[in-house]
Design goal:
This protein has 2 domains: 2-76, no CATH class; 88-116, no CATH class. The chain has 3 helices and no strands. The protein has helices spanning 2-20, 25-49, 55-76. The longest helix has 25 residues, at 25-49.
């Protein structure tokens, strides 16, 4: 029962972190929950293969926690999904090889000005 409450809290936490980085909250929350479940299943499988009996459950919890920490670190280290980063002095190249509005004023490749 406590595990279910933890997974709900953990999913919300990952979702809020992802949304603060302009990412999909639901997808990253699902990633965290699936990492936990995958870690548990892997721990049970390994513990059963090693004939650990009750230790298989303990191994399942430990591996689930490790996977949850990995999921948290992945989401926490996501870069912001803001607009494209353009280095100073380089204009964005638009289709047709023209630089963005302002032409060669931005140092782009097109060289010509675009009149809007």
């Amino acid at each position: 029962m406590l595990e279910i409450f933890f997974l709900i809290w953990f999913g919300k936490k990952l979702s809020s972190i992802a949304q603060s980085k302009l990412r999909s909250g639901g997808g990253w929350a699902a990633f965290g929950v699936l990492m936990w479940i995958g870690g548990e299943i892997t721990g049970v499988a390994v513990g059963t293969a090693l004939n650990l009996d009750a230790g298989a459950y303990l191994l399942a919890l430990v591996s689930a926690i490790v996977c949850a920490v990995i999921a948290y670190l992945v989401v926490s280290n996501l870069p912001d999904a803001g607009g494209a980063n353009v280095s100073p002095g380089y204009g964005a190249v638009w289709p047709g090889g023209q630089s963005g509005p302002g032409g060669d004023q931005q140092g782009g490749q097109g060289g010509g000005k675009i009149n809007l």
